[in-house]
Every structure is written in structure tokens, then in C-alpha cells.
Amino acid sequence: xxxxxxxxxxxxxxxxxxxxxxxxxxxxxxxxxxxxxxxxxxxxxxxxxxxxxxxxxxxxxxxxxxxxxxxxxxxxxxxxxxxxxxxxxxxxxxxxxxxxxxxxxxxxxxxxxxxxxxxxxxxxxxxxxxxxxxxxxxxxxxxxxxxxxxxxxxxxxxxxxxxxxxxxxxxxxxxxxxxxxxxxxxxxxxxxx
Amino acid sequence: xxxxxxxxxxxxxxxxxxxxxxxxxxxxxxxxxxxxxxxxxxxxxxxxxxxxxxxxxxxxxxxxxxxxxxxxxxxxxxxxxxxxxxxxxxxxxxxxxxxxxxxxxxxxxxxxxxxxxxxxxxxxxxxxxxxxxxxxxxxxxxxxxxxxxxxxxxxxxxxxxxxxxxxxxxxxxxxxxxxxxxxxxxxxxxxxxxxxxxxxxxxxxxxxxxxxxxxxxxxxxxxxxxxxxxxxxxxxxxxxxxxxxxxxxxxxxxxxxxxxxxxxxxxxxxxxxxxxxxxxxxxxxxxxxxxxxxxxxxxxxxxxxxxxxxxxxxxxxxxxxxxxxxxxxxxxxxxxxxxxxxxxxxxxxxxxxxxxxxxxxxxxxxxxxxxxxxxxxxxxxxxxxxxxxxxxxxxxxxxxxxxxxxxxxxxxxxxxxxxxxxxxxxxxxxxxxxxxxxxxxxxxxxxxxxxxxxxxxxxxxxxxxxxxxxxxxxxxxxxxxxxxxxxxxxxxxxxxxxxxxxxxxxxxxxxxxxxxxxxxxxxxxxxxxxxxxxxxxxxxxxxxxxxxxxxxxxxxxxxxxxxxxxxxxxxxxxxxxxxxxxxxxxxxxxx
Lengths: 193, 591
Ligand SMILES: Cc1ncc(C[n+]2csc(CCOP(=O)(O)OP(=O)(O)O)c2C)c(N)n1
Ligand code: SF4
Ligand code: SF4
Hints:
The complex is a heterodimer of chains A (193) and B (591).
Chain A: E1 6-13, H1 18-31, E2 35-40, E3 50-58, E4 71-76, H2 79-84, E5 89-98, H3 118-125, E6 129-132, H4 134-140, H5 147-156, H6 163-173, H7 179-190
Parallel strand pairs in A: 1-4, 4-5, 5-6
Antiparallel strand pairs in A: 1-3, 2-3
Chain B: E1 2-6, H1 7-17, E2 22-25, H2 33-41, E3 47-50, H3 54-66, E4 71-76, H4 77-82, H5 84-93, E5 99-105, H6 119-125, E6 129-130, H7 135-152, E7 156-161, H8 162-165, E8 167-172, H9 188-191, H10 195-218, E9 222-225, E10 228-236, H11 237-246, E11 250-255, E12 257-259, H12 263-272, E13 275-279, H13 285-292, H14 311-320, H15 350-361, E14 364-366, H16 391-402, E15 409-414, H17 415-431, E16 437-441, H18 471-477, E17 482-486, H19 491-503, E18 508-512, E19 529-531, E20 550-556, E21 562-566, H20 576-580, E22 586-588
Helix pairs in contact in B: 1-2, 1-7, 3-5, 5-10, 15-19, 16-17
The structure holds thiamine diphosphate (TPP) and iron/sulfur cluster (2 copies).
The site of one iron/sulfur cluster has 11 residues of chain B, from loops.
């Protein structure tokens, strides 16, 4: 946390809910009276591309982008994606990552392959790594779309924002009729230490 | 009240708050959400439309402005090239009610074909350029833009960039205020740009620029923030944020009005600091003007004109310039090699069937801009050119007329792109006796930019029903005698018809009949396919059609090559893989 600004880099693949998660995180910071910015490149994420969202909050935020080596937390929705951006993490930073693997179609060309032992590589580089199976938890809760709130729950332990405010924001921003289940998913994630 | 808004949302909100009444655009990343936001939240007060292209969007906004409505036209940077013809002379006529041209530039070409710097258009057309540096300014400067436009009788270029358009920040919002403007008032000397009138107006433009220069000296849009006087930084747009983060203690002159520059203010600022830097993205737009005014400064020497800036690059610049110690940058962490994830055509995309057939036939495919351009990537690799919207048709025509290439060239163009700028090219082919085939891949939406309606979809941006342009009738009307339709999911028929039309010694058009799978809403199909592993020989034929639903299975053949696997969640049942599988290993799933 440099100059009192917290930097969270949220990464994944199109369609995983990265953007809603980063929106909620910003909203929590806003409710707490902090300055906040987020930046992402839209574009062809719906055609299977990489998605990143830079979220920053603190007393005063200038750049909407996190600089390399300055992310306090990387929240990965997909494990190879967390590895792709690992150089953005500051020394001593935290990685929280969903163990889900999304194998891109380019692997069938035989020219590229999905990285082996991703978990180990990340753990070796980053002592503070939490790998969770958010998909399984979501399935247990009966809705695979809950992956993003579960991950936010795990994230909430790594950054210092009030639980009450998280729950308020999730209630307000979750898709219609899913407030309760999303809050439950958040708390399931938050229970993982 | 404070809201978390993107720059684009803030522009929409600002336009609404400050009495905007007419907004037009042709979609294009990163500008698209401006009109979407206006149509979604403010359509009770602000008219909003998707125009057929950027030239028409600007001309319509000009008409609305002449007609007394505060107006805005929005487009991506290259869209301004399309609208440049009206823009250059619009500078001469000036406006009726306030008129803003929003240009969303794309440094680093995140989703564009080039990274041109549209501030240059401000200088070229002698019109003011506003450069917001965050979402709040994107909203607030809408007020300045409308007021300047009316006060100086000029269109205002409102220059966004991807990082301003697509970053969100906290914004204080306000109420809508409406201004009263009269309707169109006859004024031939001002509005009819024949040479005798235009020459008089050009003189007015030159005088207006002088008045704007005087305004630039006093407007609070250009802010001096004095700090440590050893370093002075002139900057604007998002570069200001990066510079502020890297050099929080330095002295700043932040330009909100990026053209014309406040040269006296700059001279004054330069005098007060020991070393003067200019930190700007892309072209040395400020720097060259400042140097031309005889003020020494350092800019592109340290901050490249290639790709967007960021905190790292600005910091590196100041380290290289000897301003910051090497230790100012955090130790670089090693990057891991991770496979790329290029965007791909969706499962069941109708463009796939066309590209597969063209690959089989073996022709040159002059391409255009849209999802179908993704066919240029492996494994299809069928699209051979992509320059700008509408170019495919004339490219094929030119290759034919050059007479140097044996293979035939076929044009592949989307429906939105054909309407945007393909019709005139097709008429030109007929008129000049070209014999090429043009394929209109009509998925009935503007898909690449996220699924916008267009004149062929029979629905407006405001959600009203309207008459649709009939593509087939247009092709016949410009003189194409052979117009046929194909179902791209039927490979045999598609190949047969395309072959016939490629060989035909006359201009022809083939139009596809399948809709986009993703927009306006995801199409759920009744059937899906699966791979029978015992029959799969791992020949790779289905891999080569590039469907994201097909991946490599764990199971391998005797040579160690992986067999295929179809993800039932992703398969849309288009059957194209089934049609290319010669081992009959792909079967429909019975349910
Ligand atoms: C002058 C210009 N305006 C806008 C764009 C942004 N843009 C890229 S492709 C495209 C339209 C694609 O629609 P269509 O031709 O129907 O193809 P689809 O993506 O639906 O396959 C647009 C608007 C651009 N590249 N250039
Ligand atoms: S969005 Fe539509 S046109 Fe684009 S790749 Fe997907 S199905 Fe094809
Ligand atoms: S049928 Fe085959 S090509 Fe079509 S979507 Fe399904 S897996 Fe892809």
C-alpha cells in the first residue's frame, strides 16, 4: 500500500464476471468515502480474450492504472491468467486465485500449450497465495455464477474494508433477485482464511 | 450526489445536464458507450441515434445545431477521418446552438487499426480542443464545450482517449438545465459555403482563433499548480494523472484546453521553472508548438510517441532524464510466459462457414472491419487485407484491374460496414465493369463493437421500429445482376455457389442468411454435437475450423496426437465440425 493507495488487479477471461466484481469493489471503497478509480480495456472480451480490471482506492487516486510491481493483491478468476500478470504484484503482495482452468482454442493448433504446474509456479513465486475452488463452492450453493462474489469474499480478508459495507453493496448491485444468495456466497468466501 | 462513472458515461451525463438535445454516433471502441448511455438514461430529454456512418452522424448533428439544438456527435478516432469533409468546412460556417464533436482516440490501439492523435484535427480545422483528464472533467467540460461553441461560434473537438473513456471515477452530478435557442435562421453568408462566402468565413476563422488564444490565457481550464520549481511539467489528458503520480512535488501546467495553447501562460510558467518537460501521449502536439514559440522544453526525447503512456513509462522517462534516481522504480519482476488468448469467432458464428468455404476454394479475400476480420488469425487465416471500413470491395476491384494476380480476389464485408461505406464502392465496381464477387456477411447486427442496431435491423437506438434497408434490393439497384443468398451452415451449397460466383465474368453479390450468435442476445439452439472418441482419428480437421467449443481431449491416437472434445455448454449445433469430419466421429447428441 504505497502512499495509502490500495491496488487490486482483477484478472480473468471474458464472461467470467471480472467487471462486475471490480465494480462492486470500487463501490465499497466509495461507500467508505474513499477516492477510487478503475480501468479496464473493453473490446473483444466476449470473444474469449483476456480481461483485466485495475482497481485503486485511497485518499487521492491519480493514475487509473496500477503500475507493474505495485499491485497489493491480484485476484485471479482463472489460474493461468493470474500467472500472466504475476509481475504486477509488489514484493510481499497477495494472490487469490480460482483454480479453474480455461483452455483457449489456440491450443488445438499445437503451437501453444496451457502452462503446466501453474499452481506450483505461482506458489513458488508468491508466498502469500490462496488457491480456491470457487467453482465447486458455487456449485454447492446451486449457482455457478456466484464465483465472483465468492472470490470477493476471499479478497475481503486481504484488504481492510468493513464487512457491513460489502454486504450492502452486494445486495444493491447483484442481479435482481440474487442479493441473498450472493451475500451468502460472499460470506462463504470470507470464511476461507 | 456522487456516482462512479466511466468517462463515456460522464460525457453522456454532462451533455444531458448542460442542455444537450441531439446526439448521433456510429459505434466504435472506445466511444460506443456515450450514445448507449444517453439512449438508456436520458432519451426522454435527448434524442439519440446510431447514424449510418460518422460523416452522416456529424452532418446530422450540424443540422440539429443549425436548427437550434445543443448537439453532439461521437465517434472513435478513425471515425473523424470519415467525418473530416464536413468538419473542415464546418469550422467556417460555425454553429447554431452549441456543437461538440467527441473523438475517442485509442493510444496503444487496444481495438483499432491505428493510433492517430486527433488533437491534430483541432489545429488542422482551427477549432478548439478540450482534453478531460478524468470522469469528473468529462462531465464538467461538456458545459465549457457548449459555452465555447456558442460564444466563439465554432464546433468544439472533445478529445477522449481509451483510458479516459473506459476508466471509472467518482463524479459529482447535477441537474439538467436547458437553454433556449431559436430554430433555423436564414443566413446565406454564414451557411452557404460557396467560394465568395467561404473566403469571408475563412477570415472569420482566423480572427476566431486569435480570440480563442486570448481565451486560453485566462480560462481556468488551463491550471497552474506550482510546486518545486526545479521541474516544470506541461501535460494534459490522462498523461497528467501519470505525471502527477510520478512527480507529485513538481510544478504543473495542466492543459484542459489542448488547442489553441496559452503561449503567454506557458512562457510565464517556463520562466518560473528550471527545467521544462512536456508529458503528452502520442504526437509531440504541445511540444512542437512550444518549441516553435522559442521556448526550450523536453518531451518526446523521454516520453515516446509510440503507444500509450503509463506510470512506469513516465517514471522511466524522468529517470532517463536524470530527474529521478534509478531507485525510484520498483525492481522489475520477471514475466511468466503464458499462452496468448487471441479473440476468436464464437461457436456457431455464421462467418466461420464463409471463411471455411473461401479457404477451400483458394481465393484472395480482401477483408473489411468486423468480427469476420478474426478469420485472418490462425487456424482459418483466410482474410488477406484489412485497411479501413468499406475498403474490401475496392481492394478486390483494384487487384483485378491491376491484372498481375492470377487468383481471383473476393471481397468480404459485414452488413453494418456495407451500409457504412460499401454501397458506393459496389456501385463503382458495376460502373467500371469489375467482375468480382462481393460477399456480404449479413449477421444483422454491428457485432464487433458489441451488438448495435443499424439501418438494416429495423430498430433504432431509441428502441423504435423502423423500415429496414433491403440489402439485396440495394445491390440490384446499383446494377449488380447476380445476387444470391446462402446459408453458411451448409458447406456443400456454400462452396458450390461461391465457386460459381467467383468464376462468373460479371459483378456478383452473395448475401449470407444466418444471424450473429451473440447479439442482440445469445441464441440458444436445440441441438448439439459430440465426438465419439472411438471413431475419432485425431486428424485435426475440426481443430482447423477454429471453433472455441472444440478442444483437445486427453485421449490420443497411436501417434500421440490428441483427439477432439466438444464442450456441450459452448456448442451451438451449427454442424460445421460434423461436416468436415471424414471419419463420422462427430454426431448429434440424442436427447
Ligand atoms: C471508421 C470506423 N468506424 C468505426 C469502426 C469500429 N468498427 C469496427 S468493425 C465495426 C462494424 C462491424 O460490423 P459489421 O460490418 O456488421 O461486422 P460484424 O462485426 O457484425 O461481423 C465497427 C463499427 C472502425 N473501425 N472504423
Ligand atoms: S459476436 Fe456474432 S459475428 Fe461476432 S464472432 Fe460472435 S457470432 Fe460471430
Ligand atoms: S457444431 Fe461443431 S463447429 Fe458448431 S458450435 Fe458445435 S462444436 Fe462448434
